[in-house]
Design a protein that fits this description.
By secondary structure, this protein is an alpha/beta fold. The chain has a single domain, classed as Alpha/Beta hydrolase fold, catalytic domain (Rossmann fold). 41% of the residues lie in helices and 17% in strands. The protein has nine helices and eight strands. The chain has an eight-stranded mixed β-sheet with strand order 1-2-4-3-5-6-7-8, sandwiched between helices. Helix 2 crosses helix 3. The longest helix is centred in the C-terminal third of the chain and has 21 residues. 41% of the residues are buried. It comes from Neolewinella lacunae.
Length: 259
């Protein structure tokens, strides 16, 4: 992934500049642009893959909330003058994607959710973890994956650094509490865009029943489970994730053309 971060218009993002429609990828609460390296490599020849940084740590403190992140995403897509986008979100990024789709349905071509919050999630909790407790952070970070080896020391160190920065830790808690308040159960029937759900069978943060609930509440949706996989399928099982998503996008495109 040799792309350079772009900084313009008050936004930080990666963009492949590919020939096709925009494919916008949204990271989770502890995620980042590096979470999507396999998706960039796979999709960049067919789509313009775009990964904006969600400004959890840079928004003015009074704006730190899910609504603040959605407003930032809306301003970014408007700034880029994108046509309707294919949007994919993992964890908190999925939650942001849904809220954006509800507010701007005309800007959505398709939605892909993976381990999305919005109905139920069990993560760090509502208070800061014990400061300087590296082992606690290591165990929590490893719980994101079925195979703990995927949780590298670099990843654990990054999360540990974040939660031990008091202001950053406060922003994490504020954002997490905002996500819990924004339960989407009563709104998902408003989603009309084709929606793909990809869940890890061993996800303990947003367990499989959460994916099943999304499937029940979003009319035009398909749900796929990946085995030996937890909360971040695009990182842990990238080949299976990309194959499912690519096939589905092609089928939706064919269906749209037929109509």
């Amino acid at each position: 992934m040799a792309l350079q971060m772009k900084q313009e218009g008050g936004f930080d993002y990666l963009e492949t500049g590919g020939p096709g429609e925009p494919l916008v990828l949204l990271h989770g609460l502890f995620g980042g642009l590096s979470n999507f390296g396999a998706q960039i490599d796979f999709f960049q020849e067919k789509y313009n893959v775009v990964i904006p940084t969600l400004p959890i740590f840079t928004l003015p403190l009074r704006m730190v909330s899910l609504a603040g992140l959605v407003d930032h995403l809306a301003a970014f897509i408007k700034y880029k003058k994108f046509p309707p986008v294919h949007i994919m979100g993992n964890s908190l990024g999925g939650h942001v994607a849904i809220l954006y789709a509800l507010d701007h349905p005309e800007q959505i071509a398709t939605i892909t959710l993976s381990g999305s919050s919005g109905l139920f999630e069990s993560a760090m909790g509502n208070t800061l973890p014990p400061r300087k407790n590296y082992e606690f952070i290591k165990q929590k970070t490893e719980s994101t994956f079925y195979d703990p080896a995927v949780s590298t020391k670099e990843l654990v160190d990054e999360v540990f650094s974040t939660v031990n920065d008091r202001l950053r830790g406060l922003r994490i808690i504020m954002t997490a509490k905002s996500a819990v308040r924004h339960n989407l159960a009563h709104k998902l029937d408003q989603i009309k865009a084709p929606t793909l759900l990809i869940w890890g069978n061993q996800d303990t943060i947003t367990p499989p029943f959460v994916g099943e609930q999304f499937k029940e509440l979003i009319a035009d949706s398909e749900l796929y489970f990946i085995d030996k996989c937890a909360h971040a399928p695009m990182m842990e099982r990238p080949e299976e994730f990309n194959a499912i998503m690519s096939d589905w996008l092609e089928r939706v495109a064919a269906r749209t053309e037929a109509v």
